[in-house]
Specification:
10-stranded mixed β-sheet; Spore Coat Polysaccharide Biosynthesis Protein SpsA, Chain A; single chain; 10 helices; 326 residues; two-stranded antiparallel ribbon; 2 domains; globular; alpha/beta; 40% helix
Length: 326
């Protein structure tokens, strides 16, 4: 069984200079690819000169994370895809526990390693931490990270366990599973597409697993800062896309409650003097409603919906009950 480490790049020469050497050094036995999303800097020329053993896939356009990987992975033939952000530093032996987990359990389709903060290596990183979950209203949270509360890594999540979603920062998936699920939803462009893919996998009874014996370090926000209103727009809109496609139960009741909760989030941004983020939430809802007829048709074509949450409302638990740890 072979692993392909596939790094998506867009105008990220500086990130490649910093992080690609460790990927090449510590990925013995795997094949390393860089999928370039039509960069306008000299990323491709740099890689050809300094990393001749890294395979380069040149996508014709910048279709974001979703389309970028869908396009590139057509040319990757290894058994396991590792979708790795360009701002991730890997550790020695990081692939061994992952490969062992895939081999030991053929029903395991998707895996995430432990993701720590590159800038504060004693703590978990926002995007994935020790594996992801979701509440009834499609708000994501992680073992090790709930909203902006980040836990210190004390070995509390050194286990191997089932999770609901794996982070797109370092996302392992069997090639056959990726193809069966028809890849990422390209309408997402970026953000939440890995949760949507995991949710579709969950509804098809695939197993999604966290492997704490493998560790990587993620910078986070290197391509799109958390402070950018576009990130707010994509996160809020795409989470609504995802719940419409995949959630079981009375859908319009869920959407109505999301409308209220998202409105509260918009007011919170206004109080914090961040009006562009409030506007981004408003735009996210208008975009969602314009896509709703298509999303409802997609919903009909997807597998039987199942119970997907073990926390009814992470918003209530966090802001009202003041729970800060998983």
């Amino acid at each position: 069984m072979k692993i392909a480490v596939v790094i998506l790049n867009w105008n990220g020469k500086q990130l490649l200079e910093q992080f690609l050497p460790s990927v090449v050094r510590f990925s013995e036995g795997a094949k390393v690819y860089v999928a370039d999303n039509a960069s306008t800097d000299d990323s491709v020329a740099y890689m050809k000169q300094h990393f001749p053993n890294v395979s380069i896939i040149e996508n014709p356009s910048n279709g974001g994370y979703a389309k970028g990987y869908n396009d590139a992975l057509q040319y990757v033939h290894e058994d396991i895809f590792c979708l790795l952000n360009s701002d991730v530093d890997v550790s020695e032996g990081w692939l061994d526990p992952i490969l062992e987990a895939f081999i030991s359990n053929p029903k395991t389709a998707i895996i995430q390693p432990k993701i720590l903060d590159f800038k504060k290596k004693t703590h978990f990183e926002y995007a994935g931490a020790a594996g992801g979950f979701i509440d009834k209203y499609a708000y994501p949270y992680c073992r090790g990270r709930i909203f902006n509360s980040i836990e210190k890594d004390k070995g509390q999540y050194n286990d191997t366990t089932s999770i609901f979603w794996a982070s797109g920062a370092c996302f392992f998936i069997r090639k056959d599973t990726f193809n069966t699920l028809k890849g990422f939803d390209e309408s997402y462009f970026a953000h939440f597409e890995e949760i949507d893919l995991c949710w579709r996998a969950f509804n098809k009874d695939y197993n999604i697993v966290y492997v704490g014996a493998s560790t990587v370090y993620h910078v986070g926000g290197a391509t799109l800062s958390a402070l950018h209103p576009k990130k707010t727009f994509l996160n809020f809109r795409n989470s609504l896309f995802t719940i419409t496609k995949n959630a079981h139960g009375f859908l319009f009741g869920l959407i109505f409650i999301r409308l209220i909760l998202d409105g509260i989030a918009g007011l919170k941004f206004l109080i914090q003097l961040k009006p562009l983020h409030s506007l981004a939430i408003l735009k996210a809802h208008f975009s969602f409603y314009s896509h709703l007829p298509k999303l409802l048709n997609v919903r009909k074509s997807l597998p039987q919906k199942k119970n997907y949450y073990n926390t009814r409302s992470i918003v209530w638990s966090y802001f009202i009950k003041k729970r800060r740890q998983f």
